[in-house]
Amino acid sequence: MSKLTGSKKATQFTESVIREMTRLNHLYGGVNLSQGFPDFPAPDAVKAAACAAIVEAGGTITHHHGVGRDHAPYMRGEVGQLGLETLRAVKERLDPAGVMNPGKLLP
């Protein structure tokens, strides 16, 4: 197993919560998927396993930026059929032409 090293991108920042979280993840062998692979995407198998485990445990795979295409397959398990129907109704009401982020909110 290779030794974990810090992100090249993170070296330009001063101390922050993100750097401390990354440091703790490295210390304990964890992975913060939003910050743990900032120089390259998380491996697909790692991300898929993590997302499935998060949803199974009742957690959320959404982010403050929204769901996005990467996490759309997990949304039904998180919000349920009624949640999807509600979101579709709201989107239809607010964006009847379907021009606002098409394909990024709902699976």
What characteristics describe this protein?
single chain, mainly alpha, 3 helices
Instruction: Note the run of SSEs as H and E.
Output: HHH
Number of strands: 0
Q: What is the overall shape?
A: elongated
Distance N to C terminus: 37 Å
Helical amount: 40-55%
Provide the residue-averaged pLDDT. Answer: 76
Summing up helix and strand content along with how strands pair, one would put the structural category as mainly alpha
Please tell me how large the radius of gyration is.
17 Å
| Uncertain residue ranges | none
Number of helices, where a helix is a run of at least 4 consecutive DSSP H or I residues: 3
Q: What percentage of the residues does DSSP assign to strands (E)?
A: under 5%
Largest sheet: none
Report on this model:
- With 107 residues, the protein is an all-alpha fold.
- Helices cover 49% and strands 0% of the residues.
- The protein contains 3 helices and no strands.
- The termini are far apart.
